[in-house]
Each structure stands twice: as structure tokens, then as C-alpha cells.
């Protein structure tokens, strides 16, 4: 019987092997690895999901300080899941990413890619040599002669660091995404983006909060706040005079172990104050969005990220934002084999899993395959490979030459 099941699984793997790659979310508190399988019917199945915590101060403000700890953690996860040497999608924290929505003259993706670095210089406040840029055409019909484009730039040294830890751990990072877009892709897989509805996705990690607002499946606003669950850990450390490890325990296990003690009440009090501060920051961002956008009525806020589990935080969000708030369920549309996975355990981990699930929906070359969702790749591999095959190239023009003239010149030639 066992051999038959094994043969059946093997046949499935051979015939329906999807191109999806491993999703690796290198968070500053926890590293998560997810592997999904997509069947031809579109059904998506969970193959593996594992997490491991990093020691404190390993990654600070999106910058890796302890490379060995990160490599060891990723290598351990890859071994546990059996994906050593596999292609993977990673994401860099939104600390190191600049996201702009720009409106430019209509052109093909090929043309856009040819001139995007020159175009990016006008919008990104960094030297073009120090950033990796990618683009996605959002709305080809934004105007008669124009289109909306999502322009994303990631700091080159950060991309290199994140890629190098994955490589050293034995994986092949072929896609470099940003946390915000990975969240959007996980949301799209599980909920779809309802037409004529504006939803906000808020990912509350350890060191940052990523906010994105999506309207009619188009990203209309993104914002990053440099604050997260570590703020609560630090406040508990100060308030109770305890170590980082103990503060983490009070934070995550308090309900079960300390419910009647004075310590529990103190943790609850601190958690309430920290939640108010986080919600105030989120509210400022959403108020700014509302003040600068037409049709900005957000119908629902979806939360993800480990720190979104703080019950005081969810209550404060609902009270202060007066919009329905719910935690994203990243397993909602994913088939899970209950013989292989403990559903209670997966549900407990679900707020942490969103970014990894979004990354696990990526595959090498998906930008060209016109897949739904945001398909940004800051790895530069695809674009450079295509360029090197071309016998010709668009050359960079002086900044003063407008894109219109650039196109006209080409047309005259
Ligand atoms: N049950 C819980 N209650 C409250 N906080 C929790 C709980 N479980 C985890 N956390 C907190 O969630 C945070 C980790 O969440 P997550 O894994 O989403 O962050 P990360 O991806 O590592 O960080 P970042 O995205 O900011 O780099 C930590 O601050 C952790 O203490
Ligand atoms: Mg994170």
C-alpha cells in the first residue's frame, strides 16, 4: 500500500509538476520557508511550510548583520524540507525598497525595459548605479496616450546580501521580490481582488509594518513604517526588567501561562499602549492616502505578520479605524493534506506565513508569462539575460531629453 501511495505521489509530481519555486521569507525575527505545488487545473497544494527564529539583532532595519546565523537557519530549513539546491524567491524588506506609481507615455514592455533606468533616475533619490530597478505596467489604458507603471527600486547592496545568504545556504535565488508585493500575491491567491472594492493589506512584522492599498486589483498606495513587534518586546524588557528571551515568552505565551498573575496584567497594559502607538502610525498613513486619493473608501483591512496576533492590536485597529479588520488566512485557497500537516499548528502559524506563501507563488520568468498579481523581480537576472541576447540596446540619454522626444527620434529613424 505504502509503495502504491509513493508511486501515485511520484506520478503526480512528474505529470503535474508546476514551475513554482520555494518561497523564502527572511524576516528579522523569523525565517519562513514555503513550498507549494500548482496543478494544471489551477489548484494549489501545500507541500511544505517550516519556520525558524533568528537570534536577536541578526537583521536590523532590513540589513543583515550576522550572516552566519541567517545562513545556518536557512540551511536547516532547506534540509528539513528537502529542497537543497532548489530555485527560490526571496523578498527584501520594504526598508530598502522604493515604490512609485508613475504615469508615462504608452509603450511596450520591451521599450519600457530599455529606458527604465534612465526614467527611474527622475523618480528615485539614489544613484542609479546603487539600485536594481524593475517595472510592471499596471494599467495599459490609464489614458489615451499614457499608462500607469509601478516602478520599484531596491538597494543593490541589500539585494546582494539577501541573495548571498540564500546562495550560501545552498539555494538559488532567482526572484527577488518585496514583502509588500508578496503579501498582495498571497492575498490574491486566497481572496482574489474584488472589483470596485478598495482593501488595505497591513503586514505587521518584527521591525516594520508594510501597508498597501489595492483598488480593482491595482496597487494604489504603499507605505512602510519602521516599527513592529520588536517595539513591544523592548517595552516589556524595560517595564519588567527581563531579558529579550523572557520578554518574547511573555509576549507570545502570556495568555496560557500567566493569565492570573500581576505580570500578565502588566504585559497586557504595555501591549495596549504599544498597540495604540502602532495603530496611530497606521492611521496617519491611511489618512494620508484618503486625503490624496479619489474614491479612497477602504472597505476592509486585512492583517498579516506575527505581531498582528496581539489581541490588543486587533481591538485597537477596529476601534480607531472604524473599518472591518480581519487576519488574512493564507491557507484559505490552498489544498492541505491533513495526513501530512497538523492543521492547528498551521493555523497558529498563519499570520507569519503570508509573505512566504506569496513568494512561493512565483516562478522564474513569471513576468513574461503575464501571471496575475504583482510580478516584480529585483534579481535582474531575466532582464540582463534578455539584454545580452539582443544585438542592439537603447542607450541612455541625457536627463533633459524627454521620453516623448526619445520615442519620436526612434520613430523617425
Ligand atoms: N502570538 C503572538 N503574539 C504576539 N506577537 C507575536 C506572536 N507570535 C509572534 N509574534 C511576534 O511577531 C513578530 C514576528 O513576526 P514576523 O515573523 O511576521 O516578523 P518578521 O518577518 O520576522 O519581521 P520583519 O518583517 O519586520 O523583518 C515578532 O515580534 C514576534 O514576537
Ligand atoms: Mg516579515
Description:
The chain contains twelve helices and 16 strands. It is α/β, with parallel strands linked by helices and 413 residues long. The protein has a single domain, classed as ATPase, nucleotide binding domain (Nucleotidyltransferase, domain 5), CATH 3.30.420.40. The strands form four sheets. The protein has a six-stranded mixed β-sheet with strand order 10-6-1-2-3-16, sandwiched between helices. A five-stranded mixed β-sheet has the order 13-12-11-14-15, with helices on both faces. The termini are far apart. Mean pLDDT is 86; it is low at 384-413. Magnesium ion (MG) binds at residues 25, 27, 179, 205, 305, 355.
Write the layout of secondary structure elements.
Layout: H1 2-15, E1 22-26, E2 30-38, E3 44-53, E4 59-60, E5 63-64, H2 67-81, E6 87-92, E7 97-105, H3 109-120, E8 131-139, E9 146-155, H4 156-168, E10 172-178, H5 179-191, E11 198-204, E12 209-215, E13 218-225, H6 229-240, H7 244-257, H8 262-292, E14 298-304, H9 311-321, E15 325-327, E16 334-335, H10 343-360, H11 381-389, H12 403-412
Parallel strand pairs: 1-6, 3-16, 6-10, 11-14, 14-15
Antiparallel strand pairs: 1-2, 2-3, 4-5, 7-9, 8-9, 11-12, 12-13
The protein binds adenosine-5'-triphosphate (ATP) and magnesium ion.
Radius of gyration equals 22 Å
Order of helices and strands: HEEEEEHEEHEEHEHEEEHHHEHEEHHH
How many structural units, i.e. domains? Answer: 1
How is the biggest beta sheet arranged? 6 strands, mixed
CATH superfamily: ATPase, nucleotide binding domain
Uncertain runs are 384-413
Mean pLDDT: 86
Measured as a percent range, the helix fraction is 40-55%
Oligomer: single chain
> What share of the residues does DSSP label as strand, in percent?
15-25%
Protein name: SHS2 domain-containing protein
GO biological process, one term: cell division
Domain SHS2: 21-187
Pfam family, one: PilM_2
